[in-house]
Amino acid sequence: MRFLNALKNDIRFQIKYGFYFLYAFFSVVYIAALKITPFEYKRMVAALILLTDPAMLGVFFIGGIWLLEKGEGLHRFWSISPLRPMEYLLAKSISLAILSMISADIIVWIGMESAVRFGFLSLWIFIGAVLFNLIGLIVASYARSVNHYMIIAALPVMLLSMPPVLTAFGITHPLLEIFPGTALWHMIVNSMDVTRHFDGWKGMILIPWLMLLLILANKRIGTALRSEGGEGA
Which residues are CB-contacts of 226 (< 8 A; sequence separation ≥ 6)? Predict the structure, then answer.
């Protein structure tokens, strides 16, 4: 119940500060871009769009959410909050991942003109978005301001985006396959090509990444919240 309440509160917070509007705006822009893309390139363009937005866009947005809460002094109430750090970071990551998933489905549903495995697409976008949101939370916990966050978030965003982009353009190497962005790229492409058998094995690497980041985020976010608001539950 505590987690569900935290999840609902995070959704209200995102609506209040216009994150739903921003996702809607970017979705409209990308739908328009897909509509004017020649059919033979539409699948690749759509896959790149979904990889960078909405999945990775959450890295920046969740950093903004953390800093907004910090600026409003909400973290100072951590000492009297019943939430555990794991519940806090899961509510943040999942609430934004749900928004990413919905945005991705709408972009593909309206912008594409071919069949798509929406169930698989939604699942992998959700998992990838949670993973990237956890990275954003960890990085944001070290940031002193929005400008500082944009600087220190540049490296992880590059590490997330460059391997799958290289893979998309035919530059492959076994080392590139261990990056979570590359795994998500494969799953997005597979989900949008119903003419071939769906191969989910390449996406399995996201699971150990997700477990590792949950452990790291739980430790880091707990420390950051306690340093701002005293010992919590």
Answer: 78, 232
**What span, in angstroms and rounded, lies between the C-alpha atoms of 192 and 8?**
31
- Taking the C-alpha atoms of residue 103 and residue 21, their distance in angstroms, rounded to an integer, is 11
Beta-carbon contacts of 151 under 8 Å, excluding residues fewer than 6 positions away, are: none
> What three-state secondary structure class fits 152?
helix
What SS3 class is residue 73?
A: coil
CA dist 80 and 232 (Å) reads: 6
The tens digit of pLDDT for each residue in 115-127 reads 889 999 999 999 9
**Is the bond preceding residue 156 a cis peptide, omega within 30 degrees?**
no
Q: What is the band of 75 on the pLDDT scale with cuts at 50, 70, 90?
A: confident
CB 200 within 8 A of CB 183: no
Q: Is 90:142 a contact under the CB 8 Å cutoff? A: no
Task: Tell me whether residue 181 is exposed, middle or buried, using C-beta atoms within 10 angstroms of its C-beta: 0 to 12, 13 to 18, 19 or more.
Answer: buried
pLDDT exceeds 70 at position 55 = no
* 28, 40, 175, 191, 219 from 171: Cα distances, Å: 30, 20, 11, 21, 36
Distance, CA of 175 to CA of 193 (rounded, Å): 25
